[in-house]
Design goal:
With 530 residues, the chain is an alpha/beta fold. It contains eleven helices and 23 strands. Helix content is 24%, strand content 17%. The strands form seven sheets. Strands 14-11-10-17-20-19-21 form a seven-stranded mixed sheet. Strands 3-8-5-6-4 form a five-stranded antiparallel sheet, covered by helices on one side. A hairpin with a 4-residue loop joins strand 15 (353-354) and strand 16. Helix 9 packs across helix 10 (460-471). The longest helix has 26 residues, at 50-75. The radius of gyration is 28 Å and the shape is elongated.
Length: 530
């Protein structure tokens, strides 16, 4: 039977008119306002015959039952609803990403990767790459540190303790930070114990573009076709609580719950991240205020005690593993812990003793280390970069307290940890200082070769101190709270590590002594991320 007008379907009001989203915002912040959708209205039918009215009534009953079935199916699945914001002001001047799941509403603040850390509107959830970060092909380009190799092969990595010793000549052509990156050519496979999701699967839970979750890797990354597949692979792995995918080369990083009990959300235009909330798993996230995000790294000799110390630190979430991001470098590919594989440095890591202070003349070694760090280009994502010796008992939470007193400058700033001059166990550089070092270190090499008529016979700490301070004119600030060590006029009884105002104690080369120092300092062995 034909009708003069075909009525629109009438869906229940709650399908289209969502309740206002209550976000977990700091009380001092302004309320985020939301855009509500109005319910669809039905076109009224002006005239019905008795038969038409009966048919319409039966159709309405059938449609109502269909709507109930659809509502039950939808309610049984975790569902993410993104909400547009119309106003945004936050106390710590960060970007806001509101999101909601049926299980747990939340509010994520993500600091911008900029010098001023000003607030702004929400970025579009697209593949747009920002100006500074977009100049780089990928954070993980270059010779991959995760070359395909089984865990057994990694554990059996050979240690060359008979290689040529002595001083390495020259530092080579030094490139600025982020330059000369090459696209990834190797292909990595998903974890062998997982089958990629196929068929009808639950849609991914939280899904945030331009966010990176560093650390807590469950193993080497692998290539995958999309962020959705990365999320679904995480959902299949029972110990996976988050994931990050590099967009340019489709590398998927699966994240676990250790060594950090919470992951730092870092702005990175090259990545997309999320959590498998569709299967009820997630992990707390942290957004650091401007000036508080730190990237920490250690150089590990493939022989001796350092690997054991780093493994203990990983188990307890201590030292560099309490930083917002961490990395371990060596001249061999060695698995330190689950998901922690050394990044290879082009050096035999041998140095001779000498110079005015009869110390290890390791400047060429650390120039090679910095070559790799700057090629990886992770310091650009953080406010501070921190070099930590494996035998230094280091507390990242205490360092953040100290950093509140030091502000970034346009030229950069670094902290001097001893009145006698910078000492190597703990070195702290701002983002702008690292950038200046990346462009200026080659000039420093040439300058000091001319001043000293050859090799100055300095350790790396003295070289980088003189380079930043005297040649590159970077702001140098004495911070005595950074370090207590035997070579910097320590107070009596310093080995008990009971000074709560010190960030690091050095040296403690065996695990028992290291653990005792940490316990005496009343450091929380878990939750170092706070």
């Amino acid at each position: 039977m034909a009708h003069s007008a075909t009525p629109l379907r009438c869906w229940p009001r709650h399908v289209y008119n969502h309740a206002g989203l209550s976000l977990n915002v700091d009380p001092s912040s302004n309320q985020v306002q939301h855009e509500e959708r109005e319910p669809l209205q039905c076109n009224p039918t002006t005239r019905f015959t008795k038969r038409a009215a009966m048919i319409a009534g039966m159709a309405s009953i059938a449609l109502m039952f269909t709507g109930v079935i659809v509502a039950v199916l939808v309610a049984s699945r975790p569902w993410i609803r993104h909400v547009r914001t119309t106003s945004l002001k936050t106390e710590d001047k960060s970007l806001a990403f509101p999101y909601r799941t049926d299980a747990a509403p939340g509010f994520l603040l993500v600091s911008q990767d900029s010098k001023t850390h000003v607030s702004g509107s929400l970025p579009q959830q697209s593949s747009y790459v920002g100006d500074e970060a977009g100049a780089l092909a990928s954070t993980y380009d270059g010779v991959p540190w995760w070359a395909n190799q089984s865990e057994a092969e990694q554990a059996e990595a050979s240690v060359d303790d008979t290689s040529d010793s002595g001083f390495e000549e020259g530092a080579g052509d030094l490139q600025p930070m982020g330059q000369d990156l090459q696209p990834l050519s190797e292909s990595a496979a998903p974890p062998p114990d997982l089958k990629l999701p196929q068929g009808d699967v639950l849609p991914c839970g939280t899904f945030i573009d331009q966010i990176d979750y560093p650390g807590n890797d469950l193993g080497p990354p692998f290539h995958i076709s999309s962020a959705e597949k990365c999320c679904q692979t995480c959902a299949l792995k029972l110990d996976c609580v988050a994931w990050t995918m590099v967009k340019v080369n489709r590398l998927c990083f699966l994240k676990g719950g250790h060594p950090r009990g919470a992951l730092t959300a870092v702005f990175n235009a090259d990545t997309t991240s999320g959590m498998p909330t569709q299967v009820g798993r997630s992990i707390p996230t942290i957004t650091r205020k401007a000036g508080q995000s730190i990237f920490c790294f250690s150089l590990m000799l493939p022989w001796g005690y350092e690997k054991g110390l780093l493994q203990m630190q990983y188990r307890t979430g201590a030292s560099i593993f309490g930083c917002d991001e961490y990395a371990v470098y060596s001249n061999q590919k060695i698995q330190v812990a689950e998901g922690v594989i050394t990044r290879i440095v082009d050096s035999n890591l041998k140095c001779k003793m000498g110079g005015e202070f009869k110390t290890c003349l390791n400047t060429p070694i650390f120039l090679k280390v910095w070559d790799r760090i700057l090629k990886d280009n992770r310091p650009r994502l953080h406010d501070w970069s921190v070099k930590v010796d494996p035998d230094a008992v280091f507390f990242p939470a205490r360092l953040r307290g100290v950093l509140q007193n030091h502000q970034e400058t346009p030229q950069g700033i670094y902290l001097n940890n001893c009145r006698l001059g910078l000492h190597g166990p703990l070195e702290v550089f701002s983002r702008n200082a690292v950038n200046a070092w990346s462009y200026g270190r080659n000039a420093c090499v040439k300058h000091f070769r001319m001043v000293c008529s050859g090799d100055c016979q300095w350790g790396e700490d003295m070289f980088i101190d003189q380079c930043l301070w005297k040649v590159l004119k970077i702001s140098r600030v004495l911070e005595p709270a950074l370090l207590v060590e035997d070579h910097c006029e320590p107070p009596l009884g310093w080995q008990d590590c009971q000074d709560p105002g010190k960030v690091a104690f050095h040296p403690f080369k065996d695990r028992d002594g290291y653990r005792e120092c940490m316990n005496n300092a009343e450091a929380p062995l878990s939750g170092m991320y706070k």
